[in-house]
Amino acid sequence: MRPTANRRTSDLATTIFCWTAAVLTMLAVLAVMGFLLYRGAGTLGPNLFFGETHWWEAVRGVRPVFDGLWSALAGTALLVLLSCLLAVPTGIAGGIYLSEYGSRRFRAVAGFAVDLMAGIPSIVMGLFGFSLIVVLRHTFVPRAKTGLLLAAVCIALLVLPYLVRTTQNALAGLPSHLRLLGPSLGFTPWQNIRHVLLPSAGRGILSGVILAMGRAAEDTAVILLTGAVAQAFLPRSLYDKFEALPFRIYYMAAEHRTAAELDQAFGTALVLLMLTGTLFGLAFAAQRTMEKRWKG
Amino acid sequence: GSLKSFADLQGTLDIAGGTAHIPVMNEAAKRIMTANPKIRITVTGGGTGIGVQKAGEGLVDIGNTGRALSAEEVARFGLRSFAFAVDGVAPVVHSDNPVAGLSVQQVRDIFAGRITHWQAVGGPDAAIHVYGREEASGTHEVFWKKLLNKETVVGSANIIQSNGAMKVAVSRDIYAIGYMSIGHIDDSVKPLAVDGVLPSQATAIDGTYPAVRQLYMNTKGDPKPLARAFIDYILSAEGAGIIRAAGYIPLQ
Amino acid sequence: MERMKRIPEPMLEIADLSVRFAGKQVLESVNLDLYPGELVMAIGPSGSGKTTLLRAVNRLNEAYPHCNTRGQVRIRLADRWWDIYAPSTPLAELRLRVGMVFQHPNPLPFSIYKNVALPLRISLGMNPKETLLRVQRALEAVQLWSEVKDRLHDSALTLSGGQQQRLCLARVLALEPALLLLDEPTASLDFKATRHIEALFQTLKQRYPILAVTHNPGQMRRLADRVMVLQDGRCVAAMSRPEIEDPEHSRRVMEAFF
Amino acid sequence: MERMKRIPEPMLEIADLSVRFAGKQVLESVNLDLYPGELVMAIGPSGSGKTTLLRAVNRLNEAYPHCNTRGQVRIRLADRWWDIYAPSTPLAELRLRVGMVFQHPNPLPFSIYKNVALPLRISLGMNPKETLLRVQRALEAVQLWSEVKDRLHDSALTLSGGQQQRLCLARVLALEPALLLLDEPTASLDFKATRHIEALFQTLKQRYPILAVTHNPGQMRRLADRVMVLQDGRCVAAMSRPEIEDPEHSRRVMEAFF
Amino acid sequence: MPHLLRAAALACTAAAGGILLVLIYLVLPLFTSGGWGSVIAWQWLPFQGRFGILPMVVGTLLIALGALAVATPLAVGVACFVQVLAPGRIKGICLALVHYMTSIPTVIYGFVSIFLLVPLIRQWFDRGTGFSLATATIVLSLLILPTIVLVLQATLRELDRSARVTCAALGFSRPAYIRHVLLPLCRRGLLAAVVLGFGRAVGDTLISLMLAGNAPMVPASPLDATRTLTAHIALVVATDSQSTFYHSVFAAGLILFLVMVLIQLILRRLGGTFTP
Ligand SMILES: Nc1ncnc2c1ncn2[C@@H]1O[C@H](COP(=O)(O)OP(=O)(O)OP(=O)(O)O)[C@@H](O)[C@H]1O
Ligand SMILES: Nc1ncnc2c1ncn2[C@@H]1O[C@H](COP(=O)(O)OP(=O)(O)OP(=O)(O)O)[C@@H](O)[C@H]1O
Ligand SMILES: [Mg+2]
Ligand SMILES: [Mg+2]
Ligand SMILES: O=P([O-])([O-])[O-]
Fold first, then answer.
1. CA D153 to CA D156: how far, in whole Å?
2. Which candidate, A197, B210, C171, E79, has a CA 20 to 30 Å from the CA of C218?
3. Nearest residue (CA) to ligand 5, atom 1
4. pLDDT tens for each residue of D13-63
5. For residue B137, how far is its CA from the centre of ligand 5 (angstroms)?
6. What chain B residue is nearest to E214 in terms of C-alpha separation?
7. Which ipTM did the prediction report?
C-alpha cells in the first residue's frame, strides 16, 4: 500500500513545482494590477477623461479635449472594432478551410504562410504599413496617408494568423469519433463543421478571438508607425490620424512634465486595463452563453 | 499673424518631428483649436529624423527639425524651412548630484566612455550612467558636433527617444548624465556648467555657450493655407510669447 | 461468398473489396450481395476485419490515416446504382442513406434529445415539431423513451453503456435510411433488451436490408438470413438459412474458423 | 444481499451504499461482501446501476459532476482494512490495487506496448527488462500477444474492438491487483475468445476476488459463485451457486426482474 | 460556403506572401548597393558609415530565449496546476487570471516596470541603470506566459477528458499522471505554445524599447543594456528614407522574418515525428 520512496519524492516535487508556478504567476499579476490601482485609482474621474472640456461636447466631438484621455479611448475602440471586423471573419473562415477542406498541398503551403505571418513582429507590420503608404504615394495613390484605416488593416494582418491557427487547432484537436460521426449520419462536410465541429471547437475559437481582440487593443508598435499621434482628438474619417490609449501611455511614461501628468499616465493605464478587461469579460460571457446553447 | 486669421479656415493640420518643439506646438494648437473648433491639429514627436522624413514624403504638413536641413535633404524633398527659435543643448545630471560643472574634455571623456566613475570628476563613489539620444535626433547631432567634437558616444549608453524622456530618465537616476534641449530643463534635473559657462538661454544667445542651434518648421514646397497660417502664427508676437513661455528664445 | 441467383436485384453489391492500413492487408477480395428484405451477418474472430468491412460500405475507413481501398462497392437507391467509391458520388447524401451503428456507442457531447434531433434538423431539414415527434418515435422503438423522457436535456454522456448503445441506434433509425450497418448493436444490452432489439430488427429488415456484425452465436441463429465468415480479412465460408438452423453444421463451421 | 457467514474474512465490504447523480438516485442501500476466491456477478437491466456500483468501489464516480455518495466501502489489503471513502485513504495506491476493466475499451493514445508498460513503470517503478517480460505475459494471458507482437509500437487506437478490450484487460492484469472489477469484459469478444477469457477468470479468482458485470446469462451460469440482481439501483435478489445452476430458478429470477 | 472559406484561406496566404514580397522589395537596394557587408557587422556607428546590426540580433535572441526559458517551465507548471492539481475554486480563479493576463497590454507591463522593477534592479544589484537585459527578460516572460499556458491548457483539457478516468483507475497519482501521461502526450501542444510564445517574445517592441536600455551592443552581463531588432527599427525608422542608414531598418525587418522562417522549418521537420 506504500508507494516507493522514489515515486513519492517525484510526486512531491511535481506538486510543489506546479503550486509554485501558479502562485508566482498570480503574485506577479497582482503586483502589476495592485501597483496600478494604488497609483492610478485616485485620478479616476471626469477630469481624467475630458480635462477641462464639458463631457457632452467632448463626446459629440464638438470641442477638442486637452489633458484628457477621451480621444485616445475613442481611437482605441474604433481601432479594435475596425481591425476585428476585418480579421475575425477572414481568420476563422481561413482556419476552417485549412483544417477541413484544403488539399494536402494547399494546406502545407498556406499553413506555412500563416505561420510565417504569425512570426511577423508588430513593428515589422508597422514598417510594412508605413512603407506601403510611401510606395503608394509614389505610385497609384498620391494622397494616401497614414491613419486609422491603415493602422486597422495592419493590426488585422497582425492578428489574422492567430485566428487562423487557433481555429485550425481547435478543430484538429477534436476527438476523431466526432469527425466520423457526422459523415455517418449523412452530414455534408459543411454541415458537419457547422453543427458538430464548430460548436464543439467553439470554446477554443473564441479564446482565439479573445487573444486577437486583446492584441488589437494593446498593440503599440504598429500604430506607432501607422498613424497614432500624441494629440489628435476624435478622428472624423478613416484616413485621419488618431490617438490611442497604449500610445498615450507610452508617450506619457517618457514625457510627463509634472507629477500630475505622471498620475494621469497611471490613470490612463488603469483605464486601458479596465477596457481590455471589459472586452475580455464580454468575450468570456459570450463564450459561456454560446456553450450553454449548443449543449442544450 | 494672430488667432483671427484662422477664423475662415478649417481642415486638418498634421505636425510631427523634433521633440524639442513639442511644448510650443501643443500650446499653439490648443489656442487655435479653442478659437476655431473646425480646425484639427494633430501633434506628435518622433524626433528630427521623423520630421524630415514625414514632411519630405508628404505624410504630415509640417515637419519639425532641431537642426538645419542638409543641402541634400532640401534638394531631394523640396523642403522649405522656417526657423522660429534659438535653443541650446546642455549636459544634465540628477539634481542631487554634487557635480556642478565639467570641462569640455571631461564631457568628451565621459561620453566617449573614457571616464566611467563619478569620483574621477569630483562626484560620488559610483559608476556613471550615460544616457544618449538616437542618431536621428537633432539634439544629438548638435551636441555631438559642437560639444563632443564628433566623437562617438559610448556604445553602452542607454538610448532615449525624446527630450522629454531624457529629462524623466535623468531625474529618476541619481548617477545619470545626459544631454537635452535647454528649453526642456526644469527643477528635476541640473544642467552642468561647461568650462565654467552655465548653459542657459542667455549664455546661448550671447554666444558664450557653444552648443547652440535653431529650431525649424519645414514644409514640402510652399505651405498650404492652413500650414501657412500656423507658421505665421508661430512667428507672430503672440507666437513669440508661447515660445518664450516654453523656455526658448524667439527669432524676431 | 458466391453470388446467389435470385429474382430481385440486390441493394448492395460489394465486389472484390480489399482494404489495407499502412500496407497491412485487412480485407482481401471480399464479395457480397445484399438483397432487399434480407439480414446478412458477418462473423469471425476478433480482428478479422468485420468492422473494416462495414466501414468500407460508407467510406469511413478513409477517416483513418494510411488507408488504401480497392474494389467496388455499389448501392441501389431509388432504382439507380451508385458507385460508392466514384469521385462524383455525393458522399454525404449517400452516408445519410446508409445508417451505421458503431461497435462502441459514440454519443455526441450534446444533450440526449439533441443527439437524435440534430441530424434530423440538419440533414433532413425537418421542422422542430416534426422533429420532436420523430425523436420520440425512435426512442420508443429502442425502448429508451421511458428511461430518458424526464431528462432529455441531460448530456448523453451520462447515460449508461446500454442506454448509449440504444441511443445511437435510435439516432440512426430516426433518419430512416435505405440500408443499415450494425456493428454488434446489442453487445452492451441485457438479454431482455437484446430480445426486444432483435425483434425490432426482424421488422426493420423488411424495410431496410441489414448488414450486421455479431459475436453471439445465438443471435446469429435467431436473426441471420445468411452468414459470411471472415478470417484474417478473407471470406472463408458462407451459410444459408437452412445451414444456420442446422446446429451440427453451424457448430462445425464455427469450430473450423475461430 | 444479506451477509453470509463464512469463516474467512471478506476482502471487500460494501455497506448501505447509495449514489446520486444530480439528485437522481442511481444506487440505493446496496450491501455486498466479497470473499477471497470468489467471483460475484452483478446483473440487471440496462441502466440499473451496475457500472455505478463498480465505480463506487474505487471512487471513480467522483470523476463525474454532481455525484453524491453515501455509505461505506471497505477493502482489506495486507490484512488491514481501508475505508475507501475516508479522506486519509491514499486514493491512488488504492486504485492501483483495485483493477478495473471498463465497459467500453479505453486504451490511452499511446502505443500498444506503452499502454501496458506505463502503469508498471510509473506505479510500480518496475525496471525496463522486468516490464517487457510482464507485458508479454499479460498479453499472452489474454491471447493478444500473437496478434500484436509485430506491431507493439503502433498506436493502440488502431486495434479492433475486441483487441482493445483484451488490451485493457491485460493492462490491469499486469498490475497484479488485489481485487478485480470487470464491467462486461467480454462484450466485444467472439465466443472462442470469450471462453478463453472466462477460463482465465476461473484461475484468476483464486488470486484476486472478482466483482463482474455481465449481460450474458450463459456467462453468468458458467462463472458466477454468487449473483446479485440490481433493478433501479436496488439490490432486488441474490442467487447462490446451487440456485444459479438450477435453470428453472435462475430463469424465474431473470423473468421477474428484467 | 466552401468557396467563401477558400477565398479567406487564399487571402491569408496572399497577405503573407504580399508582406514578404514588399519586405524583399524594400531590402533590394541593399543588395544592389552592396550595403549588406556593412549591415551584417558588429558595429553600429551610423555616422562613420558602419551599420552593423548583429549586436541587435544577439540582443533579440538573448532576450527572447531568456524569456522563454523563464516562462516555459512556469507555464507548464501553471497549466498542469490548473488542469489537474488545483482545487475547484482556486482552479477557476487561476484560470480566469491567466485568461485575463492575455488582455494586459504590453505597454502597461513596460510602464509599470519602469517604476516598480527598474529601481529594484538598480538597487539590488548596485550595477547599471536598471534598464537591462535582465529587466526586459523578466517582464517579457510575464507577457508571453499566458499565451503559452492557454495554448497548452487547451491541449491538456482534451487529453484530460479522455485519459483522466482511465488513469485514475490504473492507480496513477495525480502528479504521476501529469508527468507520464499528460506531459508526454501534450508535446505537440507544448511545442506549438512555445513557438507562439517565442514569436511574441521576438516580436515584442515595447518592453525591450522601454526597459532594455537600447544600447546597440552585445551585453556582457544580464545587467547591461542591450537593443533588440524590434527596438532598433522603432529607433532608426526616424531617419530620412533613402540612405543605407534607413535601409538597415528593412534589413532588421527581413532578419526577423527570416528567423521566423527558420524556426518554422525546424518545427515542421520536428512536427512529423509528433503525430500520435
Ligand atoms: N454521470 C451521471 N450523471 C447522471 N446520471 C448518470 C450518470 N452516470 C449514470 N447515470 C444514470 O444512472 C443510471 C445507472 O447507470 P449505470 O451506468 O450504472 O447503468 P448500468 O447498470 O451499468 O447499465 P448498462 O448495462 O446499460 O451499462 C442510468 O440511468 C444512467 O443514466
Ligand atoms: N486504422 C487502422 N490502422 C491500422 N490497423 C487497423 C486499423 N483499423 C483496424 N486495423 C487492424 O485491422 C484488423 C481488423 O480490424 P477490424 O476492426 O475490422 O476487426 P473486427 O473484425 O471488427 O474485430 P473485433 O471483433 O475485435 O471488433 C485488426 O487487426 C486491426 O488491428
Ligand atoms: Mg470490430
Ligand atoms: Mg454499464
Ligand atoms: O528634437 P529632437 O527630438 O530631434 O532631438
1. 8
2. C171
3. B18
4. 999 999 999 888 999 999 999 999 999 999 999 889 999 999 999 888 887
5. 4
6. B159
7. 0.79
